[in-house]
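Shift notes (night). Ran Methyltransferase domain-containing protein while the centrifuge was going.
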Amino acid sequence: MNNRYGTLASWVYNLDKPVGRSFGDIEYYRQRLETCTGPVLEPAVGNGRFYVPLLQSGISVEGFDPSEEMLGYCLSACRERSLDPKLTQQSFETFAYDRQFEAIVVPLGSFQLITELASAKALLSRFFDHLAPNGRLMVDLDPIGSFLGTSGSVRSWNTEDGDLLTLTDTRVETDFVAQKTVSQLRYEHWRHTKLVDTELELFSLRWWGVNEFALSLAEAGFVDVVASGNYQHGRAPQKDDESISFEARRPA
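Came back to this:
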């Protein structure tokens, strides 16, 4: 099953990207959202890496995620900090709210989990419909070069109990026409040199050209589209940037 984030995958994600770990995005979006007076939505909230710091900043932010395991980590992090989260288990394809948001933020390339172009465009339309007039959509994308690097990496993490978690990442397909990569992720849980558990997952991502995404935002009805490189708002993306951030507005 693709992009499922099962038990071991969620555990590894929580160790690798704990709550508050920033790639420049937390500080950037805190600043971009500081004038918001209405509610903010984070789709694909995950373990709360990004969500919890926003909530701690006093921003009225809600979130959803399809993974029960990831939501469990997020809820636990909120309880530890005496925060009152508004979280639901929903997916990109079917999420629905009976209210509109002043901003929707999708950090760290989560939008790229939607690998079919038609589905991605439909999601942009769903975002548009869930924004209040003059509401802003903010989306991070990875540059194309990050999809085409070396394959076959092995990473490891030590747990609090002294166990070992490993992740072997092997790319099995690169579709240059569909602009998609598929990787085989093998998660393993080791204790005293013995394998306790393992998970195998196919992980798919789609890359976007800068102009392509800007045109798709316009097609969905957004205006005032701004693409920024490396979390420097208004600075056009450059070839060596590690991240590209889009901001667009639903007209009044």
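The first helix runs from residue 7 to 16. The chain is about 25% helix and 35% strand.
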